[in-house]
Amino acid sequence: MSAVQPARRIALDVILAVRESDAYANLLLPVRLQRAKLSEADAGLATELTYGTLRRQGYYDVVISIAAGRPVDKIDPAILDVLRLACHQLLSMRVAQHAAVDESVQLAKTVGSNSATGFVNGVLRTITRSTVDEWQERALATAKNDDEHLAILHSHPVWIIRAFRAALAAEGRADEIADLVEADNVAPRVSLVALPGNATVEELDAYASTFSPVGATLDGGDPLQLEAVRTGRARVQDEGSQLAALALSRSRPIVAGERWLDLCAGPGGKAALLAAEAAVGGATLVANEVVPARAELVRKALAVFEPAPVVWELDGTTVGDDHAEEFDRILIDAPCTGLGALRRRPEARWRKSPRDVAHLSGLQSNLLNAAIAALKPGGILAYVTCSPHLAESKVIVEGAIKKWGSAIERVDTPAVLGTITESQLDLPESLHAQLWPHRHGTDAMFIQLISKAE
Ligand SMILES: C[S@@+](CC[C@H](N)C(=O)[O-])C[C@H]1O[C@@H](n2cnc3c(N)ncnc32)[C@H](O)[C@@H]1O
Fold it and tell me: Residues that bind S-adenosyl-L-methionine, according to the entry (predicted)?
């Protein structure tokens, strides 16, 4: 038998670490690839194997349970990971069957018993006896309703399909659900921001972004090859995140001397853009992040500015007590489930649960209320989440409106974005802006501007 290819070994190691020790594939894989000094082609293969397997694991689990004749929770977890990795090769990549099966059996030997290797061999031989389309048909036949059908076909947990459907339905666009979850399975291109006053879009060797006036999209390659990125004058940042920061900084003309606060700043992407915008307009930014290690990342992101903005390490829910009515503009980029960024975090969809939404929504409300208290009369804030889940977005804003009554007012956020971008965002009539991967090519950012009465 042949030795296991390093690309498969690395992919399995990362997949095991994601499950066993909650590792993040997008952080661990680059480290493993660098250590193994793989060729570009092998590194590409390892990346496809890792990300593809993690993304499509829900679908592969349905196939595996049919082929094995038992539910996947009755299979040893490490052996199940080997089977998932093999499924990705057999059902989604054009890998020769014998290579996929033989090397998976070898991998099974390294993580399980001898009987486990016989089991892996048997299940994979069963899978190779039917075509890709036949497996899809069999897997979809287990769905009991439309949501389960989509969940299997596009490999998402059913509760996320339901949450997305509800968020789209709120815009009268429930029929776009399949497009949305399909878009979640395509890794986005690298998007860059040229920090105003520090870098220009033209100097980045990239295409100008569709919507962000300070954004550019790389066709491929390593962004660190660019001097502007290496020196922190430009950064990797999703276009939706750029629009969220710009919605606040460009919502109205900046009056020199304004004080701005980024309440939940780690790791510092939006803080860097806000700091650049503030510096151009004569305002000053304070960035706050409660987790010290993440506050350190914020300091690094802001080190390019002279003087660098101050970084606080406060629990943001207390800012209304200690800094009441101090700030002219506040960004609340709230901690959230991140359901709007599933494209870039292949394992994230399997890690989250409705319990996370319940836990986070309490914190989100507290942060928004604290920020309103810290806002000067006449000031403006942006409540932002990288999740389109209604309980993390619209419902949080509605709760604040109920609590604060006429002391605050929703600002027409699509209208503000319309003044920032030259391309049509095609947002439905509403005071908030919900961006979508399938419509805008951005993460699914929710943005609501709110002003405080004088
Ligand atoms: C969505 S992330 C912010 C991303 C950031 N704005 C960027 O663009 O790079 C939310 C951040 O809020 C922080 N956070 C969570 N609870 C917080 C709290 N009570 N006060 C302040 N920050 C908090 C998290 O540690 C996390 O870094």
Answer: 264-270, 289, 315, 333
Q: Determine if ligand 1 sits within 6 Å of the CB of residue 241.
A: yes
Residues 337-392 pLDDT 10s:
999 999 999 999 999 999 999 999 999 999 999 999 999 999 999 999 999 999 99
Q: Is 320 in the pocket of ligand 1 (CB under 6 A)?
A: no
433 with 289, same domain: the answer is yes
193 Cβ contact partners less than 8 Å away, ≥ 6 residues apart: 212, 214, 215, 216, 234, 235, 236, 237, 242, 272, 273
413 and 300 part of one domain: yes
Q: What are the beta bridge partners of residue 236?
A: 192
Residue 113 binned pLDDT confidence (cut-offs 50, 70, 90): confident
Residue whose CA is closest, atom 6 of ligand 1?
265
Establish if 297 belongs to a structural domain. yes
DSSP secondary-structure letter at 73?
A: G
**pLDDT at residue 114, as a whole number:** 81
Of 289, 311, 313, 365, the residue with max ligand 1 atoms within 8 A of its CB, to mutate for a pocket test, comes to: 289
- Evaluate whether 245 touches 277 at the Cβ level (below 8 Å): yes
Report pTM.
0.96
Give distance in angstroms: CA of 385 to centre of ligand 1: 10
